[in-house]
Amino acid sequence: MPLTDGTDTEVLMFFDDHSRFVLACAAHHRGRGPDVVATFRAAISDNGVPAAVLSDNGMVFTTRLAGGRGGRNAFQSELARLHVEQRTFRPNHPTTCGKVERVQQTLKKWLATRPPPRT
Question: Is the pTM of this model over 0.85?
Fold first, then answer.
């Protein structure tokens, strides 16, 4: 979503799979590893530590498709520290992430009806 000055932003969201309740949501100029960890910590500070997390295969979430280079990233290290199981979508299986896409689509449509934010 663009800001009033045209700067593009990415929305990072953690939500409960069962209830679809958004646990944490933050916008960043470019989502980086520390942003993922900070947003995840915000989600668990208010809602507790989950047993498992489901994410896509982006490098900010997992290095599992990186060909064995680099080990764990910051998010994977945080999940390991908290003993949280990490589950990822299978590549090219969009039905797995349908719930996530639906929540994000609803947010994008809602944001599109409002004036662009300054920050």
Answer: no
